[in-house]
Design goal:
This protein is an all-alpha fold and 162 residues long. It has one domain: Ferritin (Up-down Bundle), CATH 1.20.1260.10. 78% of the residues lie in helices and 0% in strands. It is built from five helices and no strands. Helix 2 crosses helix 5.
Length: 162
C-alpha cells in the first residue's frame, strides 16, 4: 500500500504534468498564429506527451491503492515574445519538472517505497531526454539564427514530429 505522503506527492505531480500540457497548448497557439505550423505541431505533440505522463501517474496510483485527487490547473503565462523565448521557457519548465521528479525519488527512498522508486526511474530517464531535446532546438536556433529562413527550416523539421 502506498503511503499518504507519496500519494499526495504523486497527485501534485499529476497536476504539474497536466499544467505542462496546458502550457504547451498555449505555446502551440502562439506559433500557429505566426503561421509556424511545424513548431505548433511540436508543441501539440509535447502537450500530448505530458498528458500521457499524467495518465501513467494516475494508473500507478490506482494500481497501488492510492486515491486520485484532482486539483485546479493554474493558467500558464501566455505572454510570449519570440519562438526562441518559447524554447528557453520550455527548457526552464522542463528543468522544474525534473527537479520535481527527483524530489519524488528522494521521498520514495525516505519512505522506503521501493516500488515507487522503481516506477519513477522511467520518468528520470524521460526528463533527461526532454531537456536534451529542447536544448538541441535552442542550439539550432543559436547556430542558424532566431528568425528568417532558419526559423522556417526549423519549422519544417519540427513539423515531422509524430
Amino acid at each position: 500500500m502506498i503511503s499518504g505522503k507519496i500519494t499526495k506527492a504523486i497527485n501534485d505531480q499529476i497536476n504539474k504534468e497536466i499544467y505542462s500540457a496546458y502550457l504547451y497548448v498555449g505555446m502551440a497557439a502562439y506559433v500557429d498564429s505566426m503561421s509556424l505550423g511545424g513548431i505548433a505541431n511540436w508543441f501539440r505533440a509535447q502537450a500530448k506527451e505530458e498528458l500521457g505522463h499524467a495518465e501513467k501517474f494516475m494508473n500507478y496510483l490506482s494500481e497501488q491503492g492510492g486515491e486520485l485527487v484532482l486539483k485546479a490547473i493554474a493558467a500558464p503565462d501566455q505572454k510570449f515574445t519570440s519562438v526562441a523565448g518559447l524554447f528557453d521557457k520550455t527548457l526552464d519548465h522542463e528543468k522544474e519538472v525534473t527537479a520535481s521528479i527527483h524530489a519524488l525519488v528522494t521521498l520514495a527512498k525516505k519512505e522506503g517505497d521501493t516500488a515507487t522508486e522503481i516506477f519513477l526511474q522511467w520518468f528520470v530517464t524521460e526528463q533527461i531526454e526532454e531537456e536534451a531535446s529542447v536544448a538541441d532546438i535552442i542550439q539550432k536556433l543559436a547556430i542558424g539564427g532566431k528568425s528568417g529562413n532558419s526559423l522556417l527550416i526549423l519549422d519544417g523539421i519540427l513539423g515531422q514530429r509524430k
